[in-house]
Amino acid sequence: MIPTRLTTADTAGARAGRVAPVSEAAARERTIALLAALSWLAAVIHGAVAPEHWADHPTYAVCFALLAVLQGAWAVAFFRAPSASLLRLAALLSLAVIAGWAISRTTGLPVGPERGVREAVGTLDLAATAAEAVLAAAGLRLAGDWPAGRIPASLLPLGLAVLVAGGVALMTGGHAH
């Protein structure tokens, strides 16, 4: 729960170096920006790995490119007009992508040119999956009473940690085959 009103003790604490509580409206705005950024991170990662799949598996490359477009479009749509239906869509899309990723890393995909061959886990796919996991959890948690519901206090630090880790993964590469 994020307090909605500042007291004299709160403002004194802020001056002493402690973080002051934010209003519900400010928490909601931060959440909107965070979730859009997480979806954008996943979109950028999927877009970045699409070309390297083209030579070996063009169908996979097209799937990665389409996923990048969907995740990027969702980020823009949610940033412009956040809604419960978009939160549910993010949760559904993210859970589907996570399921596909988990299958590809544990038993191998049941279709395609390398049917049944497990993919190695890389830092880029972990970063994208972490972003999708936060999106899925937030979408499921927030969609029921958006925009009036309480924003979990853990969402911002968790989401920021995923964004930083994803940025580092993008700068260092790390997509494994």
Detailed description of the structure:
With 177 residues, the chain is mainly α. It has one domain. 69% of the residues lie in helices and 0% in strands. It is built from six helices and no strands. The longest helix has 31 residues, at 24-54.
H and E order: HHHHHH
Distance between the termini: 42 Å
Estimate percent helicity: 55-70%
The poorly predicted ranges are 1-10
Residue fraction in strands? under 5%
Largest sheet: none
Structure characteristics:
elongated; mainly alpha; 177 residues
Compact summary:
By secondary structure, the protein is an all-alpha fold. The protein has helices spanning 8-15, 24-54, 58-80, 84-106, 123-142, 155-172.
Topology, element by element:
Layout: H1 8-15, H2 24-54, H3 58-80, H4 84-106, H5 123-142, H6 155-172
Helix pairs in contact: 2-3, 2-5, 2-6, 4-5, 5-6
